[in-house]
C-alpha cells in the first residue's frame, strides 16, 4: 500500500514539473525567422526644441494685401501747358503796379475809394464828396445808396457803408490778383483799379469765368495794350461765355451801350489816378525840401 502511494506521488510531481517547463518554453519562444525577414522597429529620435518646426497648417499666416490694378483711361490725359507771361509793359506810368495795402490804405480816403467813387459820381477826382455820397436812389433798382461805392445793403451811415464795401472789395481783389497770376498777367495800377471798380459795379463780370482777367488776357493776345486793353476787357466781361449773350440790362444789353458806360467809368478812374500821382510827386518834393532845409549849413 505504501509503495502504491509513493508511486502516485512521484507521478504527480513529474507531471507538475513538465507543465512549468512547457509554460517556460512558451514564454521564451522566439520564432526562428530568416534574417532578411526580421524587421526592426524604426528608432525614434528625440528632437531638440531648436529642431522642432511648426507645420504650415499650424501657423497663422497673414494674408497678403490684394493687388489693385489701376484703371487706365481710354485716352491718356493731355498735359496742360503753363500760361506764358504776357509782356504788357508800355511807357505809360499808369501801368505801374501798386501794392494792395497802398491801394486800400486810408479807408474812405484811400485811392480805391476815391477812384471808384469818381466812377460812381459820389467823389470828385481830387477826393471830395459829392451830394450823392450822403445818399441817393439807385437808378437801376431803386435801392438807397450811400457812401463812396453806392453801397445799398443796409449801412447805418456813409462811413459805415465805405467800411463794409472796402472789406468786400479787398477780398474780391485777392481773387482778381490770384486769377491774373494763374493767367500769366502782371496787373498795373490802371488794370488794378478798373478790375476793382468792375467788381463794385458787377461782381460776376469781374470774378466769374470769362470775366475781367480772362478778357484782359484775350485783349493782350489780340495786340491791345494799355487803356485800350482795359476797355476791351471791361466791355466783354459782360458777355456771358456760356450763352454768348450780353448780360447788362441796365446798360441796354448792347455793345455800344456797355462800351460807352465802361469808357466813362474808366475815364473817371484815370482822372483820379492822375490827381493821385500828382499828389504823390508834390508830397515827395515837399519831403525833399524839408530834408534839405533840415541840413545845418
Automatic annotation (TrEMBL):
TM helices/strands, residue ranges: none
Polar residues composition-biased segments: 44-66, 275-284
Bias type Basic and acidic residues, positions: 285-297
Region (Disordered): 36-89, 272-297
Keyword Signal: yes
UniProt keyword Aminoacyl-tRNA synthetase present: no
N-terminal signal peptide: 1-24
Record key words, sorted: Signal
Biased composition annotated in UniProt, kind: Pro residues: 73-82
Protein's UniProt name: Uncharacterized protein
Organism whose genome encodes this protein: Leptolyngbya boryana NIES-2135
Amino acid at each position: 500500500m505504501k509503495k502504491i502511494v509513493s508511486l502516485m506521488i512521484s507521478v504527480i510531481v513529474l507531471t507538475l514539473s513538465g507543465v512549468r517547463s512547457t509554460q517556460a518554453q512558451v514564454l521564451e519562444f522566439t520564432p526562428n525567422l530568416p534574417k532578411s525577414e526580421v524587421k526592426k522597429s524604426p528608432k525614434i529620435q528625440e528632437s531638440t526644441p531648436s529642431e522642432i518646426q511648426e507645420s504650415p497648417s499650424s501657423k497663422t499666416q497673414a494674408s497678403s494685401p490684394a493687388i489693385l490694378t489701376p484703371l487706365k483711361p481710354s485716352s491718356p490725359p493731355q498735359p496742360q501747358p503753363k500760361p506764358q507771361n504776357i509782356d504788357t509793359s508800355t511807357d505809360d506810368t499808369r501801368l505801374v503796379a501798386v501794392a494792395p495795402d497802398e491801394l486800400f490804405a486810408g479807408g474812405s480816403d484811400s485811392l480805391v475809394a476815391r477812384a471808384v467813387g469818381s466812377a460812381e459820381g459820389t467823389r470828385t477826382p481830387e477826393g471830395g464828396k459829392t451830394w450823392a455820397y450822403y445818399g441817393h436812389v439807385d437808378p437801376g433798382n431803386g435801392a438807397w445808396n450811400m457812401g463812396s461805392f453806392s453801397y445799398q445793403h443796409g449801412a447805418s451811415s456813409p462811413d459805415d457803408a465805405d467800411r463794409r464795401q472796402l472789406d468786400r472789395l479787398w477780398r474780391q481783389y485777392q481773387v482778381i490778383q490770384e486769377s491774373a497770376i494763374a493767367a500769366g498777367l502782371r496787373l498795373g495800377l490802371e488794370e488794378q483799379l478798373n478790375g476793382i471798380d468792375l467788381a463794385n459795379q458787377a461782381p460776376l463780370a469781374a470774378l466769374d469765368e470769362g470775366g475781367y482777367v480772362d478778357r484782359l488776357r484775350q485783349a493782350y493776345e489780340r495786340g491791345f495794350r494799355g487803356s485800350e486793353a482795359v476797355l476791351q476787357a471791361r466791355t466783354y466781361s459782360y458777355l456771358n461765355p456760356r450763352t454768348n449773350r450780353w448780360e447788362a440790362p441796365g446798360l441796354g444789353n448792347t455793345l455800344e451801350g456797355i462800351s460807352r458806360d465802361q469808357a466813362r467809368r474808366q475815364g473817371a478812374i484815370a482822372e483820379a489816378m492822375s490827381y493821385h500821382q500828382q499828389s504823390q510827386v508834390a508830397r515827395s518834393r515837399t519831403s525833399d525840401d524839408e530834408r534839405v532845409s533840415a541840413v545845418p549849413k
